[in-house]
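**Protein fold record**
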Amino acid sequence: MRLHILGIALLALEVPALAVTLPAGARLDAAGRVQVDVHYDCAREAPVTALSMAGLIPGARVRAPPYCVVEGWVDPASLSRLAAVPGVLKVGLPGYVLRRPQNAGVRLPSVKASGTAAGINANGVEITRADQFISQTSVRGAGVTVGVQSSGAASWQTIAGRGELPASISIVYPAGTSSMAPGDDEGTMLMEEVHAIAPGASLVFCGPTTFAEYASCLQQLVNAGATILLDDMNLMPDDIMDTGNDQTTAVANFLAANPQVALYTAAGNANNSYWEGAYQPVPLSAQSAPPLSCTDNGVTTTDSYVADFGTGQPATLTVIGSGASFPLLLAWTDSAGQPASHFDLYVYSGTAQLACFDSGDTSINTNGHQLSQNMSLAGGTYTLYIASTTAPAGTYVKLWAGGDGLTQITPASAGSTVTPQAFATGAVSIGAVDGADGVGDSIESFSSLGPATFPLPTLTQIWTPTLVAPDDINVDAADTGFSGELWPDSSGTYPQGLFKGTSASVPQAGGVAALIRAAWPQLTRAQLNQVLESGAAWPTTWGATDPDGTFGYGRVDAVDAAAAAQSLTGSAPTPPPADSSGTGSGTSGSGSSGSSSSASSSSSGSSRSGGGGSWDLGTCGILAVALITVCRRRRRPAHA
């Protein structure tokens, strides 16, 4: 008898010894133990002792109903013992963090920095007008703690020694663990950016590798005093079709329980690597498709229909450069655990079938309507067939192949944000505009576009990105594990290169949020997000639609957000603590910008005067400290 460990659930089986087939996504340690998530009944205490007795070496644990998990490592032969522990609902693979690929210099075009600012994140500071906010209010973020989640911060002390980070940063770990996740220094770079925007803010870091660790880190960061949380974590979704999936619901419930805590997350770099739409089946002969059959566990399925993507052709998958490893995912609208359709996904190179994913294969079908598998392919173009045994016309389908400049799907569509925390009520997703020119009015070609469509439980669309912020900014990665991640700057302005991607954009938004929170600490999360949206810049070149699926509500702008906050609260900024005005900004010698940049506000045209769009008479707020009048654009509904 063979026991399959499922992507989401492993039923308890009363079998003393089993030959276990692990899916390709399973991770093993040096002793051959597999990493698993044990989901337990949230009405009970975490059964850590019983699971340990059953063979689990416990790691991270999180209680965020309905997501209550003990994560750990276990001999595959003991999986059935874990499933039999009282209170255990299911055992499955963790939802892993998808690592940002190392920059090979081939996936995206090199950039030419034409902005005039120098120093750490200087173009970002200017474009967001954080420097002007600080000079007008003297508020630098003191009294606010920003919590950062990313892949690593091993060399933060090296950067702090140059004055580009605070001398002291708190490092916290997911509950049940006691060490930082191995990784590069991407988190160090995110904290550099926050420090440049809000140099008075305190910083705390947590480095997860799984969703269970991510969810636990949220609470650990809040326990450490953080009220502004940000991350650039791209997490493998357990259900990309349902807004009520466990991961999204867990984050939403966490935020509901912490109404002062704001969460900003990277929208992702998956534009052009994603397609969604109604399944339009045509016979194989209509596309001259080869005979399509897939064998799983000795059972062969022969398909008769393939998807017509509106082009009369199958989809193509292009792998950039010499090759890549990436997740390949297909989902459709059957209710979780109640499969009514049989979909298969085929990968062909010319006439040769390289892979087939069968929806009957429980090792890759995680919830009855989603197939996912890691792929490693050489550079080149491949054919993708979405196939079925019958013709369930109208079924909604999503197809995703990684992104991050590694892959392209043709045809492609909007909707490419996939990380589950981005859709939680109260979370704000951040897209990327190119900051290398010092203006930040052009969307990056890879920045994930929206809105995001969820057919289950009822058809819902969610605005993503919520806001945009600049990437292509200078960070100091010398002597850290991040130096190889920077993109070439052909102008020579920044010899190390620039940080590119929505990962570089999200700390800009988080830093501005920290400034506004420091100036108006009474704001709830809903109010804070409202003023960021209301004060967002919307250049006239973007057109009249606001919000839209490219720029969301606009580009983060500290000065106009301040005017919106003052109008909303009827109060001037709270003066900074008496001892905070001279600390944390860095110096020109160290390259930190902080409040030291003195760029002109004319560099981005109409966006500097409020971004065009509609103006409400009588909504000009007086920024009392500087005694200048700043008008804000129309107020939008609060993003809870």
